[in-house]
Each structure stands twice: as structure tokens, then as C-alpha cells.
Amino acid sequence: MTLNYRVLDWKLIGAVLLLSSIGILLIMSAQHYADSDFERTYFLRQLIWLTIALMVFAVVIHLPLRLFDFSAYLFYAVSLGLLVLVLLVGTMRLGASRWFSFGPINLAPSDIVKLTLVLALARFFAYTKLPPVSKRRLALSGIMMIIPVALILKQPDLGTSLVFFVILFVLWFWSGLQPLYVVLILSPIVSLVAASHWLSWVVYFAVLLVFLFLFRPGFLFGVITVVANLAFGMITPFVWNRLADYQKLRILSFLDPGRDPRGAGYQIIQSKIAIGSGGIWGKGFLHGSQTRLDFLPERHTDFVFSVLGEEFGLWGALLVLLLFTFVFYRAVRIAARCRSRFASNVVMGAVAILLFQFFINVGMALGFMPVTGLALPFVSYGGTSLVLCWALIGLIVSADYHWQEY
Amino acid sequence: MQRYGIPLERREKISLTVVFILFLVLAGGLTRLQILQHPELAKQSENNRIRVVPIVPPRGLVTDCEGRIIIDNRPSYTVAVVPAEVSPNITLPNLSALLGLDTTEIRKRIKKNMVSRYQPTPVKRDVEFETVAILEEQMTRFPGVTYQMEQVRQYCEGLVAESFTGYVGEVSQQDLKRGSVVDLRLGSMIGKKGLEKQNDHLLRGWEGTAYLEVAASGQVLGPFEGKHKIAAVAGANITLTIDIDLQRACAAALDTFCCGAVVALDPRNGEVLAMASYPGYDANIFSSVVPESLWQAMSGDTTHPLLNRPLNGKYPPGSTVKFVTVGATLEEGIINENTTQKPCTGGFRFGNRVFHCWQPGGHGSLTAAHALEQSCDIFMYQLGLKLGIDRLSRYFALCGFGRPTGIDLPGESPGLNPNSVYYDKRYGENQWTRGLVLNNAIGQGEILVTPLQLAQFYCGLANNGVVYQPHIVKLISFPDGQERTLQPHVSFTLPFSPKTMRVLRDGIRLTVEGEHGTARNLKNKRYSIGGKTGTAQNPHGENHSWFVGIAPLEAPEIVVCAIVENAGHGSEVAAPMVGKIIARYMEKKSARSGLSMTDEEDKP
After folding, report:
1. Which residues of B touch A254 (CB under 8 A)?
2. What whole-number distance in Å separates Cα of residue B337 and Cα of residue B457?
3. pTM higher than 0.90
């Protein structure tokens, strides 16, 4: 397919390219004082990955969007197969089997499934005749999302699983389900948390009832919501109180590894010190003392934002936040403009992945989000993640280019 | 666009609003850290380092049924290094001289136990106070070295109780891989064997954390202000069913022999009253580093001190399982309580082989109960032939043999209960003779049992056929005051009708009280006792001596099963030993009731 290159969204591409370049600089700085040559050259390998990612991007924008539309379910099925395969033969690393190893290259199939799930759900929502609140529609899309989550939960990875939920919720909303319903569907989980104290739960339940009364989502839906909330609220304190102290602690540290102060909690303290000590102007490229002194763990992957905060200060970090925000702003505008419902859904799915990972990762570095091991899109070290993110950008750019097509 | 509940413009607007709100949240967090908290965090970054120190809670105590401590903790010093602060040329040689470990050994230990380069990594546990004093005085000679107070496990009963206490050791890579415990870290302690392993999750508690501010020189400045310490949760205390008096009596009784085991159970609930294995080892040696030489010596010892005989010793049971043979035959209706077999003349011809009775002169014509009393082999051979290998094996299985008892201790052996499938596999189909059943009928041949399985079976005989699950933990007391009592539960019921049980109980009684009883020496006026002797031939030399005793017979409270390896006839060695142990139990019981009687008399 020949493209008129002038019409491509160069502002969007430029912003993402800038983010990727900043990523390479940060990885270089993060491992500049590392002991081994291997670690010092991480940035070179990231550079090679960026080249590959750009090639993938080029391929994606040259392929017709309709191809992705037609084969969405096929891609989805194949990627599920990969997930099953990684469960069977995946290499154990860091206590969880999340990777395929092909020599030096480690492939994370869960990254691929993020993409294929977006395609499959986009296709489903684009062509289904079921009304947005129909139970079948919610259930079918829910099942499409929950299968990969179940397969990934077997490899303990809470963060990635949450990405899948977010994709589903965003696409529900984008394909017409009122946010109210998304809130109500999520409400039993809130009930679970609120039930930790009877007062908070009573307040929460009162608010829920008022909410239901004001918005009247339909009788059956309302009843189900109330019953589900009651059930979750009753069960929690009952089960919780029967647990011994050490069991409670174990559950809490699974949900929030930051509670384990020798592992992730230590990382958060060090990350906050790194960012905070950077101040407005930063300590300068290659001059971050936290980074240099090895205090900052996982600094080229999960905590790469901390390196940014320490070395480039507030202005550098804000610049990156603005670049991301610009990308999301553009993408949402594109999604709203697309005439093809499939393309529009794909773009919003891509936004869901990138926005969620961005927010959780930066929030973690700033110390108010749990440590989940989600990478910062475009910036963190990691080949598959980079390629996936560029593939998503490819889809967005392509959707924008063909926005008039149905 | 009719289908959509909300118009596209509104959805777009909502989405963009969310994007901007998230941006504002992050920008806000960034501003807070980099402008408001900047001075404080910059100071921490430049001048200080934070050391995260685990607060190790005391491991739970273990007491016997009367609250006497079996496993205690005692304070000790552990020398540790912070790898990142070590200067290899100064620290290692000095430390090596101080601790008496060579530098490669120290490096090896650091590598094994290191969690992070910034956290103290234990090098040697339980060091002398003098060592710590030297460290404290000459700090400059030991950059990067620290010491911590730590609780070390103290096994108060040393060699007496190690068969069930087990021991703790440093967390290994395999422990981490198993990943059952969330807060496991290298360098900390974990239960490795016995109840320490089985109940590790209860005993270990939950580690807390202290944050210390450490100057660049390595000097501790005090607690770090930015984060509150997290308190540790102590481990749960465990009360056992063991009676330490009885346990000591068992260990003392075994002490005069080379090797053996004793298990004492309460047939009314399955409680393990005592469990001893001999020879044993001192569980305290595992609290510190076990020297390689000692380890080699123990694993190479031909008396196998590391083998936990009550659970893992697999022995031919000898005559002790004749109750299964007789019970099965009665139950199948092949004989009744009055039926006699061909008279015993001391030998029994089967095919072209003669099988002997232990009594060369023969026992003559006997009924079932008397055959048990005198432990006649010829009688059993004939029953075995009538039953056949598979029926006999099925009854062995129904009596709990060939599978673990399910006691709450790790690594129990199932023993071996052979049937025709087993023999087909072992010798090939039709390549074995029916004569094998003769051996199994008297507890010889391939069948192997653990002392615990045998004790469990006799508990069933003592308790009208109802077998309680053997267990050693009685009560768990959590640090928050909650207590959990472990209720005894029925494991299975022996496959014998009341009528059959009457005959078997006669056999048990006659063994001691009968005129020709093999254990008639145990008869005494103070209490009634019953049981069964066993003399097991084995390929390792002299016969194993078995005895299982039940007392008091009217209402059994204790079953004691003893084996002494290669010591001779059951009636000569094991029976008197069990007699002594039961005597100790009855003494204690009468002392207790005597006490309570005087209490009542004291009342006005």
C-alpha cells in the first residue's frame, strides 16, 4: 500500500520518538556506573530494539486496517495458545514464568496478548448488535478478557492482569456503556475494601443506595448490584476475622508488595529520595548519586522515571509527563474522529494500555501506587514492551490516516 | 450512532478530562516531592543511607502436655557484614582471624545468604561475647561488619526428643524456590525437619522492619525519621501431646542398646505420648554452622543417627502382625474361635520346603486365641494358605499398613504391603510361589512396617477397632491470645466384627496372662497389661526384637510399641523394655490420682 507520507500524524510520531530517545538516554545513565560491560551496554541494545520497533511500526502503518479487523479473532486465538505454551515451557525468571527464551531474547507473550485482546474486543464491540447494557454483551466481552487473565494469573503477575481489566472497562465505556454502569459493576470490589471497618462500609453502602436511587439503572441491575455488594461486604469481615495475623499480612503484601519493606518498600523509599533530591533542575545527566551509588533498584526498567526525576529534575519530568499527555490527547481525538467503529475502538484500547501503564508506573515511582512491575511505555528498558508500544502507535497513526473509511 | 447511550462528543470530553486529571495528579505528586520535600530528601540523599534491618520475632515455643518447655529460644550474637561497605583487603583477613573461618568460606557464606548488598548478611551465628566485644572495640579494623542480637533455638531435651522436634537451619535456595512462605529471605532461619518443618508457618511469626540511618562511615545514626518501623509478630506457641517424663523413660530404656525406636500412643484419641529414636543427634548443633566433618561423620555412621526410626524405620514386623492374619481368617468365616488347625509339630511342609515354627518342639493343637498367646507359626502358615496372598494383603491395607498414618510430622514412610500385583512386577508373572504367603502370614518376607504404623494398629485393637489419627500437636496459642485446640479425629476402623475383636483381645490378654504366654514375665499385680511379642528375622544379622504393649487392659490408655534392632527374641529384650515404660506411665498416673485423693481428703 502506498501512503501519502505528508498526511501522517507527524506530531504524534515525533512525540513518541522523543520519548523513546529520552528512554535510551536514561537507560544509558542508569547503568553508566554498572560493574559489568554487559549492563553498561543496555542502552545500545535498547537502540537496536528501537530500530526493530520502528520497522514494526512501518509495517503496521502500511498494512490495511481491514486486515487487522478480519483476523482479529485469529490473532487472539493464536496469542492465547502462546500463553498456554509459556505456562508449559516458559523459562523461570524472577520467580514467575513470564518469558519465552530464544537465546538472548526473552519474549513476554502477555505483552502480545494485550495487543490481540484490543483487536478482538474492538471487533466484537464494532459489530455486535446487542445493546450496551445487555447482559450477554457484558458477559461475552468479559469472558474474552478473563481467559488471558486466568492464564497470566497462573504466572503470578497482578499488574499485567489489571491492564486487561482496564482495556475492557475503557472499551465498554467507549462503545456506549454509561460510566455509571462501569462504576456499578466495579462496586462490589469497593465494598470488599470498605468492609474492613463497619462504619466505612455503612457510609459506602448509603452512598451506593443514593447513587442507585438518583440514576435508576434499571430494576434488575439495581437489585444485582445491591445483593453483590451486600454479599461481598458480609463475607469479608467474616473471613478476615478468622484469619491469623500472619495470614492477613501475607494477603496484604500480595496486594501491595510495598508493604514488604525489604523488597519493594525499600525500592519505593529509594525512588522517592532519588526524585525528591533532584529538585527543580536535577543533578544533571550521569550525575544522579542515588542512581550511581546503586541505591535505586530496577533503575533501567521499572524505576526509570526515578532516574529521570533525579537527573533532570522537575522540568525534565514535567516535559515527559506533557509528552505523554499530548500523545493521549491526540489519540483520543483520533478515536473520536474515526468513522470506522473498529478503528475507533482499537485506538481507545491502545490508549487504555498506554495510559494505565504510564499512570501506574509513574505513580509507583512517586510512591503512591503499588509496586506492580509495569514498565513505563517507550521509556523503560525492554524489547517486547517497546515493540508492542510502537505497534500500538502504528495502529493509532494508521487509524488516523484512514479516518474517513468506514 | 443511535445505539450509543451517550453521544460521541460527551465520551470524547470525558476521556480527555480523565487524561488531564491523571496528568494533574502525577504533576502534583512530582511537585510535592521535588519542591516541597526537596530539602529533606536531598539531605537524605547526600548525607545518609538507610539501612533496612529485619526485626526477627522470637520463634514460637514448644512445650509438652504439661507445659514444660521442650524447645526454647536463647539470645545470642550473630556476626554479619554489609557487603557494599566491605573493603576486601582489610575486612576479610581480619574477620577471618576473628571468627576462625577462612576467607573463601566467608565469601561463600556471604554469597549464600546475601539478599542485597546494602543489608547485613549473616556470616556466623551464635558467636562468643568476647568476639563481639573485640568487634565493638576495634571497629575501624572491620569496615562493613556488624553484629546483631538474635534468638537461637534451644532444644532443652537435646538427644532425647529430636525424633519429633527436628531442627531449624538457614534458608536455602531450594526453600526460596518452593516459595510457600512470602517473607522468606536468605540468611534467616526456617524449620528443616520434624515439627519445626511441619509447623514452620506457625512458629516463625512475621518479621518486622526497622529503618536505620547510617552515615557514610557505616556508623548507625539512629532510627530513620521518614518511615515508622514495622513491628514483628511473634510466632505461635505449640503445646504437644508428648509427656516429657515418658519420653525420657523411652530414651533411657533404649540407651543400653545399639539401635531402636519406641512409640507410645493414647488409643483413646491418637495422641503421641512419646516417640524416641536411637541413636539420635543433638538438635542444638544445627543452630549454628554445622562443621562439614561432623556432617560427614553423621551421614556416614552405620547406625544411622539421622534416621528417624519411628516414622522412617522400615522393619519386618514379625509375629506382631499375626493379629491381622487371625482377624482376617475369622472375619472371612474360614475359622471360628474354637477351630483348631493341624497340630504344630515344629515344622510344616509346603511343596518341597519345610517351614519351621519358632518352638522346635511344637505347640500341639491350638485355638486362635492360644495360637496368638504362644505365637505359633504353624497355625499362621495354615491360615495364610487358606486366605491367599491378596486377601491377606487387603486386610493388611485395611489395618493401616502400606500407607502413611498421616501423623502431623513430615516425611513419613508408607512401609510396604505386597500383593500379587507387586510380586508379578518384582518376580515376573507366575514366577513366584504361593509359599510367599506363608512368610507374610507371620510378618516375615517382603512386608515392612514402621513402628508408628504398628502402634496405630494396636491402638485400634485396644479401642474397639476405632483408630484415631496419630498426632503430636495438641494446642496452638497465637500471640494475639487466640487458641486452637486440635480435635482428635477417627482415621479409620479396623475391619473386624465385635466377635472377632473378642478373640483378638483374648490373644492380647493371654500373651501376658496365659500360662504359656510369650510375655508372661510382664504379669504383675498392680495393673493388667497385654500385648504381643515379635521376633523378626532380617538380613542384617541377629533378629529384631519387637513388643507392643497395651495397658490397662480393662480400659486401655496407652499403647507402647518398641523395636530393638538385632537384639534377639521379642520376649527377652523389647517386652521388658515396654514393661518399664508402661510401669513409668502407671506410676505417674497413680501418683496423680493419689494426689487428687489427698486433695479431697484435705477438704473439710
Report:
1. 182
2. 21
3. no
